[in-house]
Design brief:
The protein has 431 residues and is mainly beta. It has one domain: Beta Barrel (Porin), CATH 2.40.160. The protein contains 3 helices and 21 strands. It has a 17-stranded antiparallel beta sheet. The radius of gyration is 23 Å and the shape is globular.
């Protein structure tokens, strides 16, 4: 969630209501101003203080806005909250936000990357409710790393079938049908409107094999309970297997395997330079799962500085399911995952495999504000002999950034796609 339910859409004009957690405490005694450093430029800044009681609330607000993105020298843990409005055609208007904090497993080591924890939530007028937490932990000496993501989501969604042609044709047909029959009260014959409960847990623990190289076990668990289905007959037709049986709409998927990572980034949540390569090999074992199959997921990211305060970021990602004629429909590759395909919502297109890429230009402006612009492409396909260029899904857009914590941005992205556009609100960069 961080982009799935976390990767949720929001309003173009973001109004952030921020409640600081220790990050902007005003010193009690005037002579003891805390000195902090700007996270990018290194400029020294101080808290402003006043003896006038009437002005102290204003000074508190100013100090928080000016310094909440600076790690104070006298604390080992720095966290705070941020809240903002959200919007998506599929989920409607929403309120989203979260909690972000940085800390270190060894404050005596300035080279050790800061560990992060991000909590998030979202609630929309159409019934989406999502809560979750994710963390990236860098142990002493950076010899071990522990990453996790846990989320619970109540997710109203729409399903247009499996495969590019099916999804796209049914999308346009369903839009036309809605316009012509909006007062009929009948279910749309081209779309399944559903409500799901999703419980997700991802975790990995890795050991350093060599400089920047890590390897360890990986767990990927997903429980999906679909309890409302507007068109059961259509849903069953899409989930009918070659032997005539039908996949259940409620599924437990448990993947076990390993992850291999090369990571030379200078900061995980907002890199300015370096490379990141991640390979995940998972087995969905029969017995633990309704159907057994394998998944290979590979991701490459690179970052380079073009000029002052400007970063060019590139990402390529592929997810491939194989080993069985039947893949759990809840584990099919889809749009709207892992911060990619901004503008497409989760599950809008689904098939066995996906290859996607995006290129983003990030420019920091004045104070703590910045802007980004990106272009990307996605191809969802059944097999490698069925990859067609005219099935490529484009995505492009621009966004605004506000540095909430050191190297942790609040982002608002306006993404444009083949079938519309949406605005995404989240904590942390898309990649």
């Amino acid at each position: 969630m961080k982009d799935r339910t976390r990767r949720v859409v929001s309003a173009a004009a973001v109004v952030c209501c921020i409640l600081g957690a220790r990050a902007a405490e005003v010193p009690v005694q005037t002579p003891r101003d805390s000195v902090v450093l700007d996270s990018v430029t290194g400029d020294i800044r101080k808290y402003k203080v006043t003896d006038k009681k009437a002005l102290k609330p204003l000074y508190w607000v100013y100090n928080f806005l000016a310094n909440s993105n600076k790690m104070r020298s006298d604390i080992n843990y720095d966290g705070g909250f941020v809240v903002g409005p959200a919007y998506n055609a599929n989920t409607g208007f929403a309120i989203g936000g979260g909690y972000s904090a940085l800390y270190s497993f060894d404050n005596s080591d300035p080279t050790l990357m800061k560990s992060t924890v991000n909590g998030f939530f979202q609630a929309s007028v159409k019934g989406i409710v999502a809560v979750g937490v994710e963390g990236h932990n860098y142990m002493k000496g950076d010899k071990k790393r522990f990453n996790y993501e846990f989320s619970f989501t109540h997710y109203p969604s729409a399903f247009w079938g499996i495969g590019y042609d099916t999804s796209l044709d049914n999308y346009y047909n369903s839009v036309d049908w809605d316009k012509a029959n909006y007062t009929s009260g009948q279910p749309n014959p081209y779309r399944v409107d559903s409500k799901q409960l999703l419980l997700k847990l991802e975790a990995d623990f890795t050991w350093r094999l060599a400089e920047n190289l890590y390897m360890g076990p990986k767990l990927d668990f997903l429980y999906s309970y679909l309890y409302t289905n507007s068109n059961p007959e259509l849903m069953d037709r899409w989930l009918t297997l070659p032997d005539g049986s039908v996949q259940p709409s409620t599924l437990v998927a448990t993947g076990l395997g390993f992850t291999l990572t090369y990571d030379s980034r200078d900061f995980a949540t907002n890199a300015y330079k370096g490379h990141y390569i991640n390979l995940q090999q998972l087995g969905f074992i029969p017995g633990l799962n309704k159907y057994g199959f394998f998944t290979t997921d590979i991701k490459y990211q690179t970052y380079a500085s073009l000029w002052k305060k400007c970063t060019l970021a590139f990402q390529a990602h592929g997810r491939f399911n194989y080993g069985n004629e039947t893949i759990l429909w809840t584990r099919l590759a889809s749009t709207g995952n892992q911060g990619m395909g901004r503008g497409y919502f989760y599950g809008q297109y689904r098939d066995r495999n996906v290859m996607e890429t995006q290129l983003e230009l990030r420019q920091r402006l004045i104070w703590r504000f910045g802007v980004v612009a990106w272009v990307g492409a996605i191809n969802i396909f059944e097999s490698f002999d069925k990859i067609y260029m005219d099935h490529t899904l484009p995505t492009y857009g621009f966004g605004v950034r506000w540095e909430f914590k050191p190297r942790v941005n609040v982002r608002v992205d306006w993404g444009f796609t083949k079938t519309g556009n949406s605005i995404v609100f989240n904590i942390g960069e898309a990649f």
